[in-house]
Structures are given as structure tokens and as C-alpha cells.
Amino acid sequence: MAQIISLLLMLSSIAALIIVLTRKSKIKRLIAIGGYLGVSAILLLVAALSGLEADRLVSFLASFLIIGGIYSILALGLNIQWGYTGLFNIGVAGFFGVGAYVSTILVQDPTNLSVGTGAEGFFATYFNQAFVLGFFGAMIASGLTAVVVGAATLRLRTDYLAIATIGISEILRLIVTNEPALTEGSRGIPNIPQPMHNCLVVQENPDPCNILGWQLPDFSFMPPSQYNWFYFFIVLIVIVLTYIALERISRSPWGRALRAIREDEDAAQSLGKNTFRFRLQSLIVGAMIMGGAGALWAHFIKFIDPQIFDPVSRTFLVWVMLIVGGTGNNKGAIIGAFVMWAVWSSTNFLNSVLPPTLNTPFGDIDVAVQLFGPLRIMAIVVVLELILLYRPRGLLGEERHTSDIAMKGQS
Known about the structure:
- There is one protein chain.
- The protein is mainly alpha-helical.
- It has helices at 2-22, 26-49, 54-84, 92-107, 131-153, 158-178, 180-183, 197-200, 227-250, 253-263, 265-270, 275-301, 311-325, 330-346, 350-353, 367-390, 404-410, and strands at 209-211, 214-216, 357-360, 363-366.
- The chain folds into 2 domains: 1-52; 53-410, ABC transporter involved in vitamin B12 uptake, BtuC.
- Helix content is 68%, strand content 3%.
- A two-stranded antiparallel ribbon has the order 1-2. A two-stranded antiparallel ribbon has the order 3-4.
- The longest helix is centred in the N-terminal third of the chain and has 31 residues, at 54-84.
- The protein is globular, with a radius of gyration of 23 Å.
- The model has no long low-confidence stretch (mean pLDDT 86).
């Protein structure tokens, strides 16, 4: 019940925001805001009358916002590659996974990996650094990976580039799986520390809290159930800074050159633009954003393994988010991420609605194992098809960029 009400609250918020952003009429905007407030009041009243604990509602809402926010950062990174430059990158999961593993290796404390008597030890080397260093290290590592990938693939076009990037992502997954001395292999890395957790969360025996070598006092005022809101604040800061940076980029000469390459690369090259260099720069910037998103994911989930390179949830879903929100529109990328994450999350209720086993002429079908995944993908595809049919430019669509000089000349 808590999940249903939280999702309905989020969907009503997103619907009202879309109307406010896409409608010029003040009356329609006010109606949207009033409708949102009315729906929210009804949902909260239903939650109160049903005896729903506020902690469960707030906890699920915080988790939803954090994961949706991380996906919105991924969508922003893909937007600069595909939305601005036209790079058909199907290897999003590769850059995301590199960022997650590099940040984990830099930040992980070896004492977090103590194992029981008789259990096999962990093999990789960890550096026990601050979260800030891990986050920027993840961005740098993903950017360097993009340099290597771009040098090898960016002279390819469209579908050939897509095949190459998804192949490189799979190569990275195999490396992570088969190098236990570097990544612990298929067993994964557990107990990944979270930023300032020891300083803020009330604990019986708190560890010293250090940030970049500075010893901080032990605040310890926050119960564990509320820490996710602090983590969402970190994710929100990253979203805001990324959005502002990309908005400035889109209106800069560099951003205009990227859009020129997207529209007609040969024409841009004939005007003296080094299209390969611009495409490589776009790939690097997008990959660094994706690497930062991977770092945030690892420290929130507190466990990573090679499944983090999953092409369905880390590449396909991100592409759907960008298409639904509006290619070439940063606000659309953020809104599309939250919309599709709400759709993805809502499919969790299928397990409680569908019977555990279906009897068919071909034998019994385990719903949770054999049908849940395909039904989830079908729900995503249905939403995508509806968007492509009725709003092919996405919920918001690409904004028109007009030169300030041209505007002054018209005035």
C-alpha cells in the first residue's frame, strides 16, 4: 500500500510539472497545480484512514527519488551524446559500471570485508578514501574509458557505432567477472560505505568521520531510516549542477557545434569543424556523467557485482527515459527518467496480483521467474509506443535555441 500511494504521489507530481512546463495559459497551470494539491490531499487521507505507517511511506518515497534521480543523471549523460551530437551509444552500462567499481575500490574500507572463520578471503585492493575522491575518481576513470572507446569507434556511423559500444560494454563486464584480484569477480563487493554515514546516523560505536583527511565531530543525530533523505540531497545537488552545466553547454558555441554535427556532419566538416574531436569530447563528457551516476548507485545500494552492467536496466531503460522525456531537452531527460522509473517500479505489484504458478498445456510456468521480467519489459514498451505515436518528440521535446544577437536585431 505504501508503494502504491508513493507512486501515485510521484506520478501526479510529474503530470502537474509537465503541464506547467508545456502550457502557456496561466489558467491551465493553476488548474494543474490545484488538481495536484487535491490529488495529494486525497492520497494522504487514504493513507491515514488505512492506518498506513508514515515511516514506510516516507522510506519508499526517499528510495524512489534517489534511484529516479540517479537514472536522471544517466539520462542527462546520454542526452549530451545522442540528443546534442547524435552518437548512438548503446554502451551506457559500461561507463556506468566503470564508475561504480572505481568509486567502490577507492572508498571501500578493507575492514568492511571481514569474513567468517573458514570462509575464503577477498582479493582486491581497497584505498579507504573519502566519498568525494571516489566520486571524482569514477568520473575521471569513465572519461578515460571514453577516450579509448572513442578513439576506436567514433569513426563508425550509426548502427556500426551502436554495435561497437555494446560490444565494449560486454567486454568490460567479462573483465570484471574474470578478474577477482581487481574486482572480486562474480562474488561482488558488499558493505560499500556511504558518505558521512558514521557522522550523521546514531550508532552504538561510531567510527571516526574523515573527509579528505579532516577529522569531523560525531553529530549522530539522525536515525538510520532518515539517512536516505540526506543521500537524496547529495543526488539532488549532482542533478542540479549537471543540469546547469549542460544548459550552459547547449547555449555555448561548443553546444551549437555539436547540434550542427548532429544535423549534418558533412556540412559541419566543410565549415572547418573537426567533427571527430567534437564527437570525442561529447562522448567523454557524457561518459563522465554516467560514471558519476554509477558511483552514486554503488554507495546507495552498498553492493555491486557484474550484474551492474545489465544492458536492459542500465542501457535500454535509459534510452527509453530519454525518448519519453524528449531528446535534446535536459528537463525532458529528468522528467522522463522519473516517469519511466515509476512505470518500472509499478510492475513490482505484478507479483502480488498474478498467481505464483500458471497451468498451461505446455506445463507449469513459474510467474516470478519466467513471466515477471517479460511483463515488465512489455509495460515499458507499451509506454514507449504510446509516446512515439502521440508525442513523437517526447513529453517536452527539444527546445529551440535562438541566438541572443538575432533576438536583439529583431527587437
